[in-house]
Design goal:
Layout: H1 2-19, H2 21-24, E1 39-44, E2 47-48, E3 52-57, E4 60-63, H3 65-77, E5 80-85, H4 91-96, E6 102-103, H5 111-114, E7 117-119, E8 124-126, E9 128-132, E10 150-154, H6 158-166, E11 171-175, H7 178-186, E12 192-196, H8 200-204, E13 211-213, E14 219-221, E15 224-226, H9 230-246, H10 248-257, H11 267-280, H12 282-292, H13 299-320, H14 327-349, H15 363-382, H16 391-401, H17 409-424
Parallel strand pairs: 1-5, 1-6, 10-11, 10-12
Antiparallel strand pairs: 2-3, 3-4, 6-15, 7-15, 8-14, 9-12, 9-13
Helix pairs in contact: 11-15, 11-16, 12-14, 13-14, 13-15, 14-17, 16-17
């Protein structure tokens, strides 16, 4: 009976499309009656193990941790997956040019990237390391920071920035193809190369002539969604939170990274990482305000942010069937973040050693929308926060996860207290 009804509906739809033939002037086939799945375009580099590696050229095939995550998400959501290869120096411009919807290729969260798109929850943490050759030549990491040491690094990525900052006295050579960095080092045309803690084992495999030093950074990696795709960003975050909870995301980490470096992320850590990303924008906000003649404090703007925070939490609670957080306690948490933001802005403006990356994003068209996007994600993460978190554990995690410089432990404690209060509060009536 069900099959007969289904067949009848297909036939009725077929007749309806035929009735529109004068408008379309095209021949209708049975394939036209079958809805095609939406397309998800994923930007990936194919040169960054163990996140994204090209395994074939005709046709191009990819493998790696982020590739498997993309496939799992697309399969569960019924999406047609299309990989779009990008070059690291062109990552930001490719995202802005709508070449893909999301970048999934071991992309590191950086403030200037946050201003352009929307990062999701943290999926991996790494640290930058430097590999020296020949083995035994460099005894400490400071030995690399001198002339005439030549250090190679992938051009256009996060590692290029931190390499130039950490080894300012050395000769930093930026190479557009990440895979070519190791080849150049092994060919003897470099003295060292910078990679990270997860890629380094792949580079060292098969050679015993490399020394590893570091890590000298702690970096979060996440998926970078176009700013105009908030529904995709929210849905992917919700899916990642679910996969974190059921252990399948951690299983993929262990498969691709090994049991030792792989670690999962609690809802509290994800929330704090989002707050830290928001705070990382504050030096840029301070410089943008100063250059445009705006005051560092804007009370009327704070009320807009508070109202948006409560609305984000309310909308997230409705979307996921979660308990609605108390509005005043949500505002308390965001006020604590605002005080932290002011502290960082003030300290950055008065720090003579602070050299902001140029160009500075526009405060109205880039930085404020970015802050609202992060606020929306924080609202989503608030509703996934477990009840009755232990205050000491919250404090310890807050001290560890809020890594933006120029922030005092006293201010971090205020944020921790607000999170504890939110976790302990009964749902809003």
């Amino acid at each position: 009976m069900r099959w007969q009804l289904h067949s009848w509906l297909r036939f009725a739809l077929f007749l309806a499309i035929l009735a529109l033939g004068d408008a379309s002037m095209g021949q209708v086939t049975s394939d036209d009656l079958i809805a095609k799945p939406p397309i998800l375009r994923v930007g990936t580099s194919g040169d960054y193990a163990p996140f994204s590696i090209v395994t074939g050229e005709d046709p191009i095939e990819f493998e790696g941790f982020d590739i498997e995550v993309a496939r799992a998400y697309a399969a569960e959501r019924g999406l047609e997956l299309r990989f779009v290869r990008f070059l690291w120096p062109e990552l930001s411009s490719s995202l802005a040019a709508d070449r893909f919807d999301i970048a999934m290729s071991g992309v590191t969260i950086r403030p200037e990237r946050t201003a352009l798109g929307r990062f999701g929850v943290t999926v991996v943490e790494t640290g930058a390391v430097v590999l020296g050759r020949p083995k035994g030549r460099f005894r400490t990491i400071d030995d690399f920071n001198r002339r005439p040491v030549r250090i190679g690094v992938n051009a256009g990525g996060h590692l290029e920035r931190v390499t130039s900052e950490r080894f300012s006295r050395a000769t930093v050579i930026s190479i557009p193809d990440n895979a070519a960095v190791l080849q150049t080092l092994l060919a003897g045309n470099l003295d060292a190369a910078v990679t990270d803690t997860l890629e380094a084992p792949h580079w060292r495999d098969g050679t015993d002539d490399l020394d590893q030093h570091g890590p000298f950074t702690t970096d979060r990696k996440a998926y970078w969604v176009r700013a105009d795709r908030p529904e995709l960003a929210r849905d992917l975050d919700a899916w990642l939170i679910e996969r974190e909870a059921d252990g399948s995301l951690q299983a993929l980490r262990i498969e691709h990274f090994g049991p030792e470096p792989a670690r999962s992320f609690s809802p509290l850590e994800s929330l704090l990482a989002a707050m830290d990303e928001r705070l990382s924008l504050m030096p840029l906000v301070a410089v943008a305000k100063r250059r445009s003649g705006m005051p560092l404090e804007a009370p009327e703007r704070e009320e807009v942010v508070l109202d948006a925070a409560v609305e984000s939490a309310r909308a997230a609670a409705e979307r996921y069937g979660a308990a609605l957080p108390d509005a005043e306690i949500v505002k308390r948490l965001f006020r604590a973040q605002m005080e932290a933001a002011k502290e960082i802005q003030w300290n950055a403006i008065h720090d003579r050693d602070y050299a902001p990356p140029e160009p500075i994003p526009d405060i109205k068209t880039e930085l404020r929308p970015a802050l609202l996007r992060i606020g929306d994600r924080i609202g989503q993460l608030l509703v996934s926060l477990p009840a009755n978190l232990e205050s000491d554990a919250v404090r310890q995690s807050t001290l560890e996860q809020l890594r933006t410089p120029r922030l005092s432990d006293t201010t971090k404690q205020e944020i921790a207290d607000a999170i504890t209060a939110l976790s302990a509060a009964p749902p809003a009536p």
